[in-house]
Design a protein that fits this description.
Number of helices: 8
Number of strands: 17
Radius of gyration: 21 Å
Oligomer: single chain
Strand content: 15-25%
Bound molecules: flavin-adenine dinucleotide
Shape: globular
Helix content: 25-40%
Structural class: alpha/beta
Distance between the termini: 46 Å
Order of helices and strands: EEEHEEHEHEEEEEEEHEHEHEHEH
Length: 321
């Protein structure tokens, strides 16, 4: 069996859970087995994982699981893997997934591969999984030498599709270990999709000249329902908060659309964004290195181009309604 750890938040399964479930279903099909998913905590829509290929969906719902704790979650998932005799455990390559991967593989004595970006293949009785290395500059194929494989799946590796129908969620009861820490307070930014989960990102660099000019970036982001990001010097200068800094030393993202405004495209910046599905670059310098990585490029003054783009998007959206 392929077991998927499906992340949930605010009572709903995350988009990444749909992707990993579909990935798990395709992997299970190639291995001639079935895919099941497990949700820890509350999620009223867990049954829809069936539509993305899970034959069974299990749920352990307990207030002790309201906040993700790797030590607790890894022990629970390991127990479920043993009970269900799963041979592959899949999770999203998210912050939680990455922290779970290592612990789980130690408990299960399983081979761990982080950031798998294509369906693994079974060759000579061993699972072979591909992943990007050096910020996506190269790819390696890892052979899993153990009977259990623990894999985190890079976002956007597969486009989830409906291949089944919703299933009834079975609730499971397991021994939940006591957490060694307690979350006493949570302060959340409301209304903004966190960068690692954003499908559309509008990002800007030093070309903006002054933080006072950021309004045009925010207007475009608002028109597109996008999350904002920035280059490192912009965060270092205090123009934008550090949690918006993307790149080698910032957050690595894989949105469907990345719009880079007044960013030169230095290798350290590209390292964190070059896995985006579509890259649009707006820069006045036709020689800016970012154009080499762009799917679409606009050579022009951002102070003219960006407001026009925002206006065109707003007009388009109004016409749609
Ligand atoms: C170890 C190390 C790690 C690093 N990690 C990161 C990282 O994680 N993320 C990161 O971003 N950087 C990182 N850097 C810095 C990186 O090397 C670059 O210096 C940085 O990305 C440049 O930021 P920028 O593109 O905003 O600024 P600049 O290089 O100054 O580029 C500004 C761009 O704006 C364009 N521009 C100017 N005015 C206009 C206008 N009116 N209209 C249109 N375009 C205009 C210019 O043509 C230029 O291309 C790192 C560097 C090192 C050494």
């Amino acid at each position: 069996m392929v077991l998927v750890y499906a992340e949930a938040q605010d009572g709903k399964v995350k988009k990444s859970a749909l992707e990993v479930t579909y990935f798990g279903a395709k992997l299970a099909e190639s291995l001639n087995t079935t895919c099941a998913a497990i949700i820890l905590g509350s999620a009223e829509d867990g049954g829809k994982l069936g539509s993305y290929g899970a034959k069974e969906v299990f749920q352990i719902n307990d207030p002790k699981l309201d906040h993700f704790d790797t030590q607790v979650v890894s022990k629970i998932i390991a127990d479920v893997v043993k009970e269900k005799q799963a041979t592959c455990v899949l999770m999203a390559d998210s912050a939680n997934g990455k922290s779970l991967l290592g612990r789980l593989s130690v408990i299960l004595n399983g081979g761990a591969v982080r950031g798998v970006n294509a369906l693994p293949q079974m060759k000579d009785g061993s699972l072979h999984a591909d992943r990007g290395v050096f910020s996506g500059k190269a790819f390696v194929t890892c052979k899993v030498n153990t009977s259990i494989a623990v894999l985190s799946i890079a976002g956007n590796s597969i486009k989830p599709q409906i291949i089944g129908s919703d299933v009834a969620v079975s609730s499971m009861s397991v021994n939940i270990p006591e957490s060694k820490t307690k979350v006493v307070d949570v302060k959340r930014t409301v209304g903004i999709v966190p960068l690692p989960e954003a499908e559309v990102v509008v990002s800007a660099g030093r070309g903006l000249k002054d933080p006072a000019n950021w309004g045009i970036v925010e207007d475009l982001a608002k028109a597109l329902g996008a999350t904002t990001a920035c280059s490192r010097p912009v965060a270092d200068s205090g123009w934008r908060p550090h949690h918006e800094h993307v790149g080698q030393t910032g957050i690595a993202i894989r949105p469907n659309l990345y719009i880079a405004i007044g960013i030169s495209g230095a290798i350290q910046h590209l390292a964190g964004v070059n896995s985006s599905k579509v890259i649009v670059v707006i820069n006045k310098d036709p020689e800016a290195p970012f154009f080499k990585a762009a799917d679409y490029g606009v050579v022009g003054d951002l102070f003219e181009v960006v407001p026009k783009l925002t206006e065109a998007i707003q007009k388009f959206k109004t016409a749609q309604h």
